[in-house]
Specification:
Blueprint: H1 3-21, H2 24-31, H3 42-48, E1 53-57, E2 60-61, E3 65-66, H4 73-82, E4 87-91, H5 101-110, E5 115-118, H6 124-132, E6 137-141, H7 147-159, E7 163-168, E8 183-187, H8 199-205, E9 213-217, H9 223-231, E10 234-239, H10 241-244, H11 249-260
Parallel strand pairs: 1-4, 1-10, 4-5, 5-6, 6-7, 7-8, 8-9, 9-10
Antiparallel strand pairs: 2-3
């Protein structure tokens, strides 16, 4: 892992240890399966949607700094919902992305769309927490997990009624592909340089069978890119900064979708 990703994961493990010591995860473990909310299928929502955009809520990123400081999750997600998103991604990391679990909770109250908890998941307790706060799916990042972790975390998510988006970055990570996951995301961002290149998704498409729900992630900013990726089998497109950099992200999404028609 590169130095930034190492720092994020190290900090995440410290957060988990601190929250465990405070007994915060005990609540998640005991209440997750009692939630009145029943998760819905994110993969089905993507494939049933004409465009398949997973609109992301995030305030900042390590590579870009502040993108939309002060953004309110329920307001943004309502706008995404009205504008035709297939699903929403909610970043819950606080230190590096300015997010919080409260953003996921607010988003859950404001939409019936499936929600992805976008987080650096390294422990099962985070999966129970995702369920408690209203997520329909979780992100598993292959570069920070072993194959056994991915299998175990996928099973936990499925037992809780949630789906899994497994994120890959290059061909070297194909050995961590678990056929039980519901979606596979190809991240176009190089984790060493943080440069994005949508050709990564194009190159990886042939390595994944047609029955896999493929999601292209990061660096998507033009209609031409969406069309090119759809032509090689992608059905989901996770887009955040392209919308969040605008004052009204929902309107930016609507304009983007209208331009694809």
């Amino acid at each position: 892992m590169n130095s930034i990703l190492n720092a994020i994961v190290d900090n995440k493990r410290r957060e988990i240890e601190a929250r465990a010591m405070l007994g915060i995860y005990d609540k998640a473990l005991s209440h997750a399966t009692k939630s009145v909310y029943t998760p819905v299928s994110m993969s089905r929502s993507i494939t049933d949607n004409e465009v398949g955009i997973i609109a992301e809520f995030k305030r900042r990123s390590p590579s870009r700094g502040d993108i939309h400081p002060g953004a309110v999750a329920d307001e943004i997600v309502k706008g995404y919902t009205k504008s035709g998103a297939a699903a929403c991604s909610i970043l819950t990391d606080t230190v590096y992305f300015g997010g919080a679990l409260s953003d996921l909770a607010l988003a859950r109250k404001s939409t019936s769309l499936p929600l992805l908890r976008k987080e650096f998941i390294v422990d099962s307790c985070q999966i129970f927490e995702a369920r408690l706060y209203g997520a329909d799916a979780i992100l598993l990042i292959a570069s920070i997990l072993s194959f056994n972790d991915i299998v175990k975390f996928t099973d936990t998510a499925h037992q809780l009624g949630m789906e899994v988006l497994l994120e890959l970055h290059d061909m070297d990570e194909l050995d961590r592909f678990n056929p039980e996951v519901d979606m596979v995301g190809i991240n176009n961002r190089n984790l060493s340089t943080f440069v994005t290149d949508t050709d990564v998704s194009l190159q990886m498409a042939s390595a994944l069978t047609d029955d896999i729900v493929k999601v292209a992630e990061s660096g998507l900013s033009s209609i031409a890119e969406i069309h090119r990726l759809r032509d090689v089998g992608y059905r989901g497109f996770l887009i955040g900064e392209t919308f969040m950099k605008h004052q009204h992200p929902g309107k930016a999404l609507k304009d983007f979708i209208n331009a694809t028609e």
